[in-house]
Design a protein that fits this description.
The protein has about 140 residues and is of the alpha/beta class. Helix content is about 20%, strand content about 20%. The strands form 2 sheets. Strands 4-3-5-1-7 form a 5-stranded mixed sheet. The chain has a two-stranded parallel ribbon with strand order 2-6. Strand 3 and strand 4 form a beta hairpin.
């Protein structure tokens, strides 16, 4: 297994309440450009649905394709949402998504005690994703 030191949180940049699944995101990521990215798989390791269901994405033993330059030792978690009804960035996490993300981070820390940091995609790129400060909200969950 590759060494894991960080979790990076993302949003799917879809409108609030739109019920997309990991299979939809995988289709977007693997579609041939210009419609998609042309990747071999979904970029994220986990997708958190509106109802809090945690779906598996890319296998954990593989580097993700979620944060350019920061995929080697990280796990990518994406929550469905991130935009208001007009497409502007907004923290649209449901209560179920917030609880599921917290549960998932705690479980990952148990499996990978080497995780010491939680970040948002926006910490590494000029993006609003994930539309909230992931480090401030979840960073305490991985501190020893």
């Amino acid at each position: 297994m590759r060494p894991i030191t960080e979790i990076i949180i993302h949003c799917s940049a879809t409108k609030e309440g739109a019920n997309f699944k990991a299979a939809d995101i995988k289709r977007w990521h693997t579609a041939t450009p210009p419609q998609g990215n042309g990747w071999k798989d979904i970029g994220y390791h986990y997708v958190v649905d509106l109802d809090g269901t945690i779906e598996l994405g890319r296998p954990l033993d593989q580097n993700g394709a979620h944060t350019s330059g920061h995929n080697t030792n990280t796990i990518g978690i994406c929550y469905v949402g991130g935009c208001d009804g007009t497409g502007k960035a907004k923290d649209t996490r449901t209560a179920a998504q917030k609880a599921a993300i917290e549960k998932l981070i705690k479980a990952l820390k148990t499996c990978f005690p080497t995780i010491t940091k939680v970040s948002g995609h926006r910490d590494y790129d000029n993006k609003a994703c994930p539309c909230f400060d992931a480090g401030a909200e979840y960073g305490g969950l991985v501190k020893d």
